[in-house]
């Protein structure tokens, strides 16, 4: 391995506290650090001001504090083509996409990685909470030490080739420690609020945002038995297991979304958080990535996450033809959602993941989940 | 690593003589030029001398020179000031798509105020056509603003011909001569212009000062409101030291103009020759009628952010188009006007501009670095 001072590390900086501290740590380790701000979304307002300006200004302030060069790069077109188009297509199909997984796969660890390499970088670093470990000639991705902040769920599509070129300087730290380091070093972003939600939507109302791109088609809310319970605003605004915004009153337990019928534009609802329709015992996933670079050939047992920040569940994974897998849950799971990622773990090791396509119950695919 | 500066069209290093001339002003001439005592008179003299120097450099009368905070303010005063003051004669304005934003955004402001603006396009060489302008001219046209030298391509615009065309027309003619100043001789009478903008920091003077030439008889609505300075066209206590430094820079600029232009021409040739010898693919943007200090080059198969970042990391400072407020480089509006939006050259072109920070040696070294980077990028992608 080269001396740190001869090792160029390009770090993706968002203007947030995490990437700021990641840059600081790399600089302290003596690397040749180059900060780059990615602009993925054109949000120029009527005065011609990009709303990314504030974040970029924070990147500038932090880089000046650290005395590292900073630049910006524009991936608006790639982001639109690879992430946003997928995002809209999934909603159109009645599914609930995960744009962050796609952004990591197509933009941060593909277009941006290529850009970094074209700048003569040896590594690309980001402020993600995850860890990379070299094991012989293989690279392993481990959960961030701060399990409550672990982001491997979103990084499940990273390949061996990518893992060999990335650094996650925060992987061994607790979030609270990251804030402390920022404060100790008086970084400009030390007290900046963490961003929430989907990056291109930001603080805006999700429903309003989506309606700018997809025509809303209101329709009926019905029980699976065919009883009409009200009207919905458009299937894309609802996700499985959701309680809010249904507006169904009456006696008994609260109402939940239990399914979608895209063909007939019906939103299926039923009563009770633990409603049986919400439970399943398996799923089928496609677009699998195995971080080891080797797809399994035999069934195996591991743990899995079906959404971010959920406790792991025990599962048995059975490889199918054409690279898909069937995942059997050891205990029934609630509100497994097509379009979301399923990510597999062996202890701290993230094995990879894929996109949830079908939901299985009693050895049959559920037909009412969209 | 020694850096090489190829961005003189953005700003220039100050000459030592200019700095030396300014320091005593800060130290000894702190008086307010409007004051009626010896301190004021001392400052007033510096101001008047500077006004004479700047006026003479463009063959103008000193009464017609208004000092401003720079090129942007001078352009704004020319466009907005003249349009507002002359709107009783009509509300139509003509400018071009390749102007600096100081003109374009001033024109957009005027559109908001009810003026109608025609933006002339340019040909593939980046030149405005006098015929197009003639066709766009109307009875109610009150103002035409066409830059003298484009800041991205260095293309010289036919301002004198436009001046001749407008001689019998009511429309005032303004030209933004910021990039022309110091690189081509300027004579406001020969050009037949009513208003002309120059800036100090593009000619190795200090930042924060520029001037608008505007004939005394032209009515201009001031942008600022205050005292009686600059014949009320630009109220506010004058920036004496900067104005003095500006004048010093103008003197020096004229003294060595010939030698400088000869060496810039050689730098440009050397730069192009070095790129050619390296075997990389490139083409020049802009026609043959241009200033020697600016060259704009398209590198097929690359993109400008990748190029500029790589150049900077290897110590070569160049630029392109304009950055958005979030730092990323937007496709050049000038190249878009020349080639049409979406043309590859609008996103793979870089401007290199030569000046006092250059020597034959560093131009060649810089060109070699550029060639190596382009070669590496086009090989791997």
TrEMBL record, chain A:
Its EC number is 2.8.1.13. The active site is at residues 103, 199. Keywords: ATP-binding, Cytoplasm, Disulfide bond, Nucleotide-binding, RNA-binding, Transferase, tRNA processing, tRNA-binding. Residues 149-151, 307-308 are annotated as: Interaction with tRNA. It comes from the Bacteria. InterPro entries: MnmA-like (IPR004506), MnmA-like_C (IPR046885), MnmA-like_central (IPR046884), MnmA-like_central_sf (IPR023382), Rossmann-like_a/b/a_fold (IPR014729). It comes from Pontibacillus marinus BH030004 = DSM 16465. HAMAP family: tRNA_thiouridyl_MnmA (MF_00144). Belongs to the MnmA/TRMU family. One of its GO terms (cellular component) is cytoplasm. SUPFAM superfamilies: Adenine nucleotide alpha hydrolases-like. It is an enzyme of class 2 (transferase). Gene3D superfamilies: Adenine nucleotide alpha hydrolases-like domains, HUPs, Translation factors. The keyword RNA-binding applies. One of its GO terms (molecular function) is tRNA binding. It is found in: Cytoplasm. ATP binds at residues 12-19, 38, 127. Residues 207-269 form the tRNA-specific 2-thiouridylase MnmA-like central domain. It catalyses: S-sulfanyl-L-cysteinyl-[protein] + uridine(34) in tRNA + AH2 + ATP = 2-thiouridine(34) in tRNA + L-cysteinyl-[protein] + A + AMP + diphosphate + H(+). This is tRNA-specific 2-thiouridylase MnmA. Residues 98-100 are annotated as: Interaction with target base in tRNA. One of its GO terms (biological process) is tRNA wobble position uridine thiolation. The gene is mnmA. CDD domains: MnmA_TRMU-like (cd01998). Its main location: cytoplasm. Residues 280-356 form the tRNA-specific 2-thiouridylase MnmA-like C-terminal domain.
TrEMBL record, chain B:
Keywords: Iron, Iron-sulfur, Metal-binding, Pyridoxal phosphate, Transferase. Signal peptide: none annotated. Gene3D superfamilies: 1.10.260.50, Aspartate Aminotransferase, domain 1, Type I PLP-dependent aspartate aminotransferase-like (Major domain). Its EC number is 2.8.1.7. GO terms for molecular function: cysteine desulfurase activity; iron-sulfur cluster binding; metal ion binding. InterPro entries: Aminotrans_V_dom, Aminotrans_V_PyrdxlP_BS, Cysteine_dSase, PyrdxlP-dep_Trfase, PyrdxlP-dep_Trfase_major, PyrdxlP-dep_Trfase_small. It holds the Pfam family Aminotran_5. Its cofactor is pyridoxal 5'-phosphate. Residues 4-364 form the Aminotransferase class V domain. It catalyses: (sulfur carrier)-H + L-cysteine = (sulfur carrier)-SH + L-alanine. The keyword Signal does not apply. Belongs to the class-V pyridoxal-phosphate-dependent aminotransferase family. NifS/IscS subfamily. This is cysteine desulfurase.
């Amino acid at each position: 391995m080269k001396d740190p001072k001869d090792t160029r590390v390009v770090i993706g900086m968002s203007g947030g506290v995490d990437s700021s501290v990641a840059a600081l740590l790399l600089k302290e380790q003596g690397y040749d650090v180059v900060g780059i701000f990615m602009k993925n979304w054109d949000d120029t307002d009527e005065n011609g001001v990009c709303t990314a300006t504030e974040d970029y200004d924070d990147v500038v302030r932090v880089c000046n504090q650290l005395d590292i060069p900073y630049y910006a790069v524009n991936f608006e077109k790639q982001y639109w083509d690879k992430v946003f188009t997928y995002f809209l297509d999934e909603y159109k199909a009645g599914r609930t996409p995960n744009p962050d997984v796609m952004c990591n796969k197509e933009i941060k660890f593909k277009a941006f990685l290529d850009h970094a390499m074209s700048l003569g970088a040896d590594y690309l670093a980001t402020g993600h909470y995850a860890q990379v470990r070299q094991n012989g000639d293989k690279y392993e991705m481990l959960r961030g030490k701060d399990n409550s902040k672990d982001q491997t769920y979103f990084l499940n599509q990273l390949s061996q080739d990518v893992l060999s070129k990335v650094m996650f300087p925060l992987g061994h730290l607790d979030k609270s420690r990251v804030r402390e380091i920022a404060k100790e070093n008086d970084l400009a972003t030390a007290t900046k609020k963490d961003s929430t939600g989907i990056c291109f939507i930001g603080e805006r109302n999700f429903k309003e945002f989506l309606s700018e791109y997809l025509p809303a088609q209101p329709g009926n809310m019905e029980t699976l038995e065919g009883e009409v319970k009200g009207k919905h605003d458009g299937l894309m605004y609802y996700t499985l297991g959701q309680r809010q915004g249904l507006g169904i009153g009456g006696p008994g337990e609260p109402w939940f979304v239990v399914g979608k019928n895209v063909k007939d534009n019906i939103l299926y609802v039923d009563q009770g958080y633990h409603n049986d329709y919400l439970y399943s015992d398996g799923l089928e996933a496609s677009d699998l990535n195995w971080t080891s670079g080797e797809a399994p050939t035999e069934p195996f047992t591991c743990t899995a996450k079906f959404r971010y920040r959920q406790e792991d569940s025990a599962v048995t994974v059975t490889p199918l033809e054409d690279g898909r897998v069937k995942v059997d849950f050891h205990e029934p799971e609630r509100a497994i959602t097509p379009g979301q990622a399923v990510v597999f773990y062996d202890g701290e090791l993230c094995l990879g993941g894929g996109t949830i396509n079908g939901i299985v119950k009693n050895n049959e695919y559920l037909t009412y989940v969209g | 690593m020694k850096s090489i500066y190829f961005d003189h069209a953005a700003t220039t290093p100050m000459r030592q003589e200019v700095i030396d001339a300014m320091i005593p002003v800060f130290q000894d001439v702190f008086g307010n030029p409007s004051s009626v005592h010896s301190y004021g008179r001392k400052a007033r003299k510096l101001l008047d001398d500077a006004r004479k120097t700047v006026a003479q450099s463009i063959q103008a009368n000193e009464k017609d020179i208004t000092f401003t905070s720079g090129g942007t303010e001078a352009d704004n005063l020319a466009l907005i000031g003249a349009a507002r003051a002359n709107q009783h004669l009509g509300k139509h304005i003509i400018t071009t798509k390749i102007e600096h934003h100081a003109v374009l955004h001033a024109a957009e402001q005027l559109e908001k105020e009810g003026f109608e603006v025609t933006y002339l396009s340019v040909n593939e060489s980046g030149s405005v056509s006098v015929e197009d302008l003639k066709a766009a001219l109307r009875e109610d046209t009150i103002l035409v603003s066409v830059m003298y030298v484009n800041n991205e391509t260095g293309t010289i615009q036919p301002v004198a011909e436009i001046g001749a065309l407008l001689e019998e027309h009511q429309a005032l003619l303004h030209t933004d001569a910021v990039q022309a100043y110091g690189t081509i001789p300027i004579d406001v009478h020969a050009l037949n212009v009513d208003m002309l903008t120059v800036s100090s920091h593009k000619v190795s003077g200090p930042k924060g000062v520029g001037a608008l030439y505007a004939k005394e008889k032209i009515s201009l609505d001031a942008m600022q409101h205050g005292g009686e300075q600059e014949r009320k066209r630009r109220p506010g206590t004058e920036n004496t030291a900067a104005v003095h430094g500006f004048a010093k820079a103008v003197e020096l600029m004229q003294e060595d103009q010939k030698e400088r232009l000869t060496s810039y021409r050689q730098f440009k040739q050397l730069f192009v020759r070095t790129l050619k010898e390296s075997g990389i693919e490139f083409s020049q943007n802009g026609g043959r009628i241009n200033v020697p200090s600016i060259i704009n080059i398209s590198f097929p198969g690359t993109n400008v952010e990748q190029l500029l970042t790589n150049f900077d990391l290897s110590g070569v400072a160049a630029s392109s188009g304009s950055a958005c407020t979030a730092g990323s480089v937007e496709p050049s509006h000038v190249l878009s006007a020349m080639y049409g939006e979406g043309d590859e050259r609008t996103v793979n072109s870089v401007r290199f501009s030569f000046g006092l920070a250059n020597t034959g040696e560093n131009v060649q070294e810089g060109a070699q670095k550029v060639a190596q980077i382009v070669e590496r990028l086009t090989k791997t992608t």
